Amino acid sequence: MHFLITGGGTREYIDPVRFISNASSGRMGYALARAALKAGHKVTLITAPTTQRVPGGAKIIKVETAAEMFEAVRKHFSRCDCLIMAAAVADYTPVRPAKTKIKKEDKFLTIKLKPTTDILKWAGTHKKKRQIVVGFALEDKKLRERAERKLKDKNLDMIIANRPAAIGSDKTAVQIKTLRSKWLGTRSISKAAIASRIVRLIENLLP
Ligand code: CTP
Questions:
Q1: Structural domains of the chain ordered from first start
Q2: What is the pTM of this model?
Q3: Cβ-contact 195, 32 below 8 angstroms
């Protein structure tokens, strides 16, 4: 299979040297890329900035912003068999980033944000029948209920739900659901172990 995987946290620039981002380490996306490569698949990894080591054998596409990530996914989506959106994509981006460095002034500063494109939803609703689209859901409360709603609303094949504590950590416990399966829960294990499990479950979704 050809896996298209996204990882890392996007950066939304306020001015040329400052941005809004999140605590994503990129571990999950990179672990998925490694697991897919190990299982003999072809991997294209679209990555926002991280300190992770590039997995040998993957085609790497570096992006920074949510808009750049969307462009890269759009470009490569039709050629993949499975898209996994493991990146922590910013939901909002500054409406008008300053062209030069914002000078400090002794008053409040307001930055107006606009929503970004939901890449996962775009892929789920634009997918041809043959593509498998997998998303993540990060939820404080009502984990399964909210994740299941995302699975349906975004027309996904699989959703992996976890808690905000998973962001940036080495280990995590996840809940996984496909359209036809019941919820499958793991205890807190390494992201590498979770990634291998996810790749195996995706292989099993193939007709
Ligand atoms: N995602 C995406 N494009 C965005 C934002 C998120 O593709 N602009 C993807 C993430 O990669 C992840 C999934 O959507 O796979 C879920 O992200 P999450 O932040 O949990 O949920 P949202 O859909 O943004 O909804 P909410 O903020 O209501 O929880």
A1: 2-204 (3.40.50.10300)
A2: 0.97
A3: yes
